[in-house]
């Protein structure tokens, strides 16, 4: 950063390497990381030199991102803890609330009229016989599973049958809280696709080829600014290069060396053929939309019915407590003291899913917008204009694959060093090279 400041915010790799005493590859990696974190960008001179340009407030931006990177893990842990406590408290409270509310109704009625008490008990039994659902007491342990969302997602992906239906307890907080982020861990899939694509193209690509896998706004001005490629360069140790026409391409040397002969020496297609032949890699990265709940319609109806039963009981109990002329005592006094909490819980049982439903509308709209933008970038590769076609053809011409076969192995750890005649192999290799040159 001192070297960047000394050069006025516009530096080459040589500037930083010379002033900071770094190796060229170290200076390049550092500049890429700094540019990616501070919204820096690249410039190319008339002789093909690559310059890194940083905004005047790049130090402040780096400080803000550094602080955010330190705070985010703490916030994520706190968020996970709050969600965990909320699931445990909210889910367990449904059963407890129903038991308390209807027990209080029975006790309040029995204290005044024995006939009403008998009728209330008979009515309770007739209602219970009509509500049929299976609840295993062991299901309650799902509330105390901190890895529930992750475990449930894995089960859903592995088995998509009727045997994979949620149990009673899972259905409750799936209806209220949902089933977690469907895109959790999807960043690993994104980088996997990018790495596979670069490798399939011989280690040299244009920035437009990686746009279908990144989060970029769908606008022409955005594509002209290729700073979005910096995180990819940093992750796969890439470097910008200039072709004969002055276009910026990106080479990834580490992805050009392979032990598999399947991809060596193969040319990739440009234009329409790209749509049918893209190296076995998905054409664009697609995020999954959030679902309100993975429960079936019958399961949602059952959970909503229980929530409605609880809400109805709270309303009836509130009427009874309001009309009671005698001072409450014992159990009824306890219920009267926590009755506001029972009201809040009964209302939030439906308020939380309703709020979450509106939130999912916006979240899914943003996901759809990003997916469409990436799909649009992918389509532009199917029908490239003249300049983009030349750029892609140039990248294909500069692409290469180095196959490391058995004949190039000079040492192996599965054999003793004495058994491996390295000098003989080296002289034989040099002799073959001399024969080829002759």
Automatic annotation (TrEMBL):
Disulfide bond keyword on record: no
GO cellular component: chloroplast envelope
Chain ranges passing through the membrane: 84-109, 301-321, 341-361
InterPro entries: At5g03900-like (IPR044200)
UniProtKB keywords: Membrane, Transmembrane, Transmembrane helix
Protein name stated in the entry: Iron-sulfur cluster biosynthesis family protein
Protein species of origin: Pyrus ussuriensis x Pyrus communis
